[in-house]
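Listing S7. Sequence submitted for prediction.
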Amino acid sequence: MKLSYRGQTYDRNPSVTTATDVTVESKYRGANTKVHMFKNLQVRRSNADLTYRGVKYHK
């Protein structure tokens, strides 16, 4: 997908995420509770050549 920002055009590179929903049973002040949380959240980012105020850098 072609996008543009302030006159500069670029291709959209969506990041890929992987997450698993985990339910943990615990006690809070004597009451049983279930907590849902994400486990193994991984974000893959591509390397980018960026420019900030005329200075180029690689991230």
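Caption to Listing S7: primary sequence and predicted structure tokens for the chain studied. The chain has a mean pLDDT of 78. DSSP finds no helices and six strands in the chain.
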